[in-house]
Amino acid sequence: MRPSGPLESDLPTGDDLRPASFPEEVARELGTQYRKLAIRYLIACAVLFAAAYAVVRWSGATVRFAAARTGGRAVPTWTVSGVVRNAVTRDPVAWASVADDAAGMPPHFRTEADLHGNFELLTLGEPHLLRVTAPGYRSVIVHVGRTWFLWRPRGREQRDVDLTPEP
After folding, report:
1. What values do phi and psi take at 16, rounded to 5?
2. What's the confidence (pLDDT) of residue 141?
3. Can you point out the beta strands (E) in 55-152?
4. Per-residue confidence at 104, pLDDT binned at 50, 70, 90?
5. Where are the beta strands (DSSP E) in the chain?
6. How far is CA 94 from CA 56, 80, 132, 137, in A?
7. Could you tell me the pLDDT band of residue 8, with boundaries at 50, 70 and 90?
8. Angle 56-61-65 (CA atoms, 0-180°, nearest 5)?
9. Average pLDDT over residues 75-98
């Protein structure tokens, strides 16, 4: 029959309770430092890999957009919306025409405001001009788009337009 309680082999010996020697402490500390250093290097490599991936993906999108733009196959991804109003009375101007300026590079997109002067034009994100016209009013040129359209070619822009009545 075996006695209950700890076995002699489970009890600490005098060797287990002795303080570590200097070389053992140095080896243990170096092992800890090497693990920390390895983790830092892994994190740094992961961040660099992610950054390189983002740059390659962005540059590919930029090249695709530029190729589509020069080939005349650009897809509109920028939405310009707003309200066309009479500059004097502040009343909405119904059925006003909102279009990319014909003097700019094609393709040109256009839309019309509704009965309440609200419009929404889907166009390209690059900086360009819109021409807003309505019978009985002077036409207005509006700057839209953003310089950094290649970074994020999709987006929305709010532009309210005031048209001055012709005398």
Report:
1. -70, -25
2. 96
3. 78-86, 97-100, 110-112, 118-123, 128-133, 140-144
4. confident
5. 78-86, 97-100, 110-112, 118-123, 128-133, 140-144, 155-158, 161-163
6. 46, 17, 12, 12
7. low
8. 150
9. 94
